[in-house]
Every structure is written in structure tokens, then in C-alpha cells.
Amino acid sequence: MSTPFHKVAIIGLGLLGGSIGLAIGEYLPGVATTGYDRNRATRRRAAERGLVQTVADSAEEAVAGADLVILCVPPGAMGEAAMDCAPGLSAEAIISDVGSSKVAVAKALAEALPNHTVIPAHPVAGTENSGPDAGFASLFQGRWCIITPAQDEDAAKVARLSALWEGIGARVEIMDPAHHDRVLAVTSHLPHLIAYTIVGTARDLEEVTESEVIKYSAGGFRDFTRIAASDPTMWRDVFLSNRTAVLEMLQRFTEDLTELQKAIRKGDGETLFDHFTRTRAIRRSIVEMGQDTAQANFGRD
Amino acid sequence: MSTPFHKVAIIGLGLLGGSIGLAIGEYLPGVATTGYDRNRATRRRAAERGLVQTVADSAEEAVAGADLVILCVPPGAMGEAAMDCAPGLSAEAIISDVGSSKVAVAKALAEALPNHTVIPAHPVAGTENSGPDAGFASLFQGRWCIITPAQDEDAAKVARLSALWEGIGARVEIMDPAHHDRVLAVTSHLPHLIAYTIVGTARDLEEVTESEVIKYSAGGFRDFTRIAASDPTMWRDVFLSNRTAVLEMLQRFTEDLTELQKAIRKGDGETLFDHFTRTRAIRRSIVEMGQDTAQANFGRD
């Protein structure tokens, strides 16, 4: 297959943007890449690491001649980033993004670029690190990228975007944006919210010191600290832009937690045992589907 | 230093018991080991893997001649396991355990063995796996073992138990049992409860399928599934035996979660951003203290 695009412009050169640039360089070497980040130090570091072939001095300049533009900024900054690109965009360029919420981002992009083709997307991949040093070429290998085109979108354009993601190692799924937001609310947003919460709870206790929390974190707590170390700006924007679905999933979680709390209070061991037995199966399925390692403790020890 | 004990008997040959046996074999080869598990298949597998030098046919037989007995059974089974050992125990044997809650276990052991020296302990180490195939010799390397002796305990005996744990790679801390139970409620028990809850919530949704939950788990959810795959019997017992501290920590967590929920509902980005920024530091400290890997995604991808 020929390359799906000639030139890809990446706006925002952090973990996701940098990884896309490196992945294209590695797996789709026929595709040219340019990039821009509004942070000057990030641009400099991006050039040093060669995240893209050309680091431009403005968004407008970066997107000139590109047939695909991928916005890799926090959800709340998408509209503004799109407007910064507008003056330089080719009429036939496809605009996409990597935002973790899709209804709000699609709306912001459509409003910012009413005369362009916007096809939102979300690669479900990442690490707890951020910034221009965080990206790596293999980040998307075996991970899913969810594309959420408008219902009347040109199928050929969606296929080109799919081909790019598959070209850098991802598996592609097409989904309705509202459904995406509910799925990710439970598989990503709620877990982050809970992890951020418990890490804060542990830190603020008076009777247990922070040093004790750190020393004895191998009992389970350390697992939560990884995602609670994720980029604060991005996660603020995720919760604000996917508010309804997150609050709904949180409501379900709270109901379930209350049920287990009641079982503990009443000394109802049977309810606890039944619940804990049923949750084991999901882990096995995730490992079998290649979405996590089979090694104990994630293989980290 | 000479070996702190001549013969260690391990009752319960699952993840913890098996790992202690293998670790003694590896790092303290001068110490003899015997073991017993009430499950016949586990005894057979323990013998095949050589988890201990001699697998006995009863607890009584296993502890004969041992100067240290370590009970490695779920918290709720400690009292009964201790009573099974009683007829075979030497008068000078020290009885210890690895239970995740200490006030209730200490009480159960003292009641079962009123005429013996009981020094409870809890190595803060483990994996999501259980059973006789789960153990490995290096499990305790660099991890903490908390020993919770009675206030009037003979210091020389506590020192011998400490030496054993240090001999197999652990770092030792002496702690009041009630304080242990509060510390572990936040660093281990609450994280497990929350992980078990959210995995159940995700599984029970109607509008998001289990297959979607699994496919898109790399967005954060998969981190929670690891500890939610832990042994159900043990965790039922942990929550029942450390009920008060767990419910108290859960109350704090719920208050903090409600605060973040309110911030999301009100669109209060500043509160979210501030909270998410402060939680980053704890992760860094855990990595610096050698309690987790510095690699992104725990190094698993």
C-alpha cells in the first residue's frame, strides 16, 4: 500500500505528539513530518530528539502543505490550537486529534474549522510521563485507536486516517463519539479520578506519615501512584470535557463501593468473597487479549 | 552471623509460604525448612518445586523440632492453624505469621497458643498470584517486613526474627500492631477494596460491554485489574479482620472523592489541577525509595 498521507503536521510535541512523530519516522518513513509546540523549550528539545523532521516556529507554518494535521494538545486547548493552524491549512487537509474525550473535542474542532474535514481520533495508549522526552516510537504497537467520524463522513478519508494509525502499529475501531466517551469514562477517566483521589487521601492523613505511605506502598498503593502522576493539565481538561459520562460512572462506582462497605461493616464474608472471585476473570481476559503483561507485578520487580 | 534459627516450619505453602521457603533455601542454606499445607494437591506441588526441604503430612509433624514456625494462611484461618500445630510445638519455639492485619491475628494466635512466644509479622510484599506455583525466592528483596511484638516481648527473640527476615532480603521495621493496621489500611487494604470495586463496576455496566472494557483497558483500567486478581479468601479475611481501620480510611477516601466530584460538576478546573499536581510528588518519592520501578508503565510494554 502507498502511504496514506504525504506530510503529517503534529501540533503539540509531548508524549503523544512526540510518539506519533517518532512512530511515523520508524514505520512509515515515506511520510514527511513537521511539528510545532507553543512552548519554546519543547520545540528545542523536539528538534534535538528528532521527534519530527522539521520543527516550525508557528502552527500556521507547521501545517503548510500538510494533508493531515494531528492536534496533540490537552482537550481544553484543541479549539485554540485549531484556530492557530487555520491560516496555513490546505483546503483538502484532514484535521484529527488524540484527545481523550470526543464529543466536546469534535464540537470545538468543528466550530474552529467549519470549512475543513475534521475526523477526531483517540489512541488508547500512554504512560504516566509527559513532555518532549516522554515519547517513543513503539507506544501504539498493539494498542487500540478509536476513530469517531461524523456519520456522513467520506469513508475514503476515514480509511486513510485508519491506515496511518495501523501503519504505526495500532488497531483501529470506528465508534460513535458519545459511546466513546462512556467507554473511556469507565476504562480510563474513572480509574484516573480514583487514583488521584486515593493518592491525595493517603498524603493528607495525620496519623499515618507520608514516609510510611511511601515505605509500605508495595502493598498495593504504588499501583495507583503511576496514573496519579499523569499530566495535570490534560486530566483537568478530560474531566471537564467529559463531565456527564464521568459523573455517571462515578455514581455507579460509589453505589458499588457502598455495597462492599456495608458488607465489611456487617461482617458479610460471603458477599465479599463472591465479588472478589468474579473480578479475577477480567484480568485473565485482558492478558489474553494482549492488553497487559502476564508477568506478576507487571514484571517490574 | 550464625543463622538465627536451626529449623523453620512453614504452615501454608502458597505465595508467601512458598516464597519464604525458597528464600531460606537460597539465602540462608544453613537453616532447615519443613512445611505443611492442608490442601493435598498443594503439598504435592510444594514437594515437586522444593518449596521446603521436607513436606510433612500434618501441621503437628511439620513443626516438630522447629525453633521458628511461620503461619502463612489467610488471617481468618490463623487461630485454627495455630491450634493444629500446638501438639507438636517445642516449648521454646517462636510462632510468627505473615498476616496482613495484625491486631486481630495477634489476638487469635495468643488465644490459640497461650503458653508460647508469639511474635506477629507482616512482609509488605506479594503479587496477584496465589498457590504453590506463585512463590519465588526474591520476593522479599528490598521490601519491608513489619514486626509487631507485644510491648513486653524479649528483645533477643525479636532480634532473631528480624535477622531471619533480613537474611532473606527484607528490611525490618518494628511497629505497634494498631498502628500497623492503620498504615496498611491505607497503603494496601483500601487500594485493594477500590480496585475490586471498580473492576466489578466496569463488568456490570449494561451500556459498555465487557469486551470494550478489556479492549480499551490500557487507558488506565488495567492497572486496577492486577490487584483485583488477588486471592479472594485472603482478601475477604483482611477486610473482616481489619474492619475498623479500613472503614475509617474508606470514609476519608469517600470525602475526598466527593470533593473532586463536586469540582467536576461545578467545572472548577483550578481545584482539579491543584489536586493533580500535588499527587505527582508521591510517585517520585516511591521510585526514589526503591519501592517501584522508574520505567514508564512499570516497564511492562
Automatic annotation (TrEMBL), chains A, B:
<dbReference type="Pfam" id="PF20463">
    <property type="entry name" value="PDH_C"/>
</dbReference>
<dbReference type="InterPro" id="IPR046826">
    <property type="entry name" value="PDH_N"/>
</dbReference>
<dbReference type="InterPro" id="IPR008927">
    <property type="entry name" value="6-PGluconate_DH-like_C_sf"/>
</dbReference>
<feature type="domain" description="Prephenate/arogenate dehydrogenase">
    <location>
        <begin position="6"/>
        <end position="294"/>
    </location>
</feature>
<dbReference type="InterPro" id="IPR050812">
    <property type="entry name" value="Preph/Arog_dehydrog"/>
</dbReference>
<dbReference type="Pfam" id="PF02153">
    <property type="entry name" value="PDH_N"/>
</dbReference>
<protein>
    <submittedName>
        <fullName>Prephenate/arogenate dehydrogenase family protein</fullName>
    </submittedName>
</protein>
<dbReference type="InterPro" id="IPR036291">
    <property type="entry name" value="NAD(P)-bd_dom_sf"/>
</dbReference>
<keyword id="KW-0560">Oxidoreductase</keyword>
<dbReference type="InterPro" id="IPR003099">
    <property type="entry name" value="Prephen_DH"/>
</dbReference>
<dbReference type="InterPro" id="IPR046825">
    <property type="entry name" value="PDH_C"/>
</dbReference>
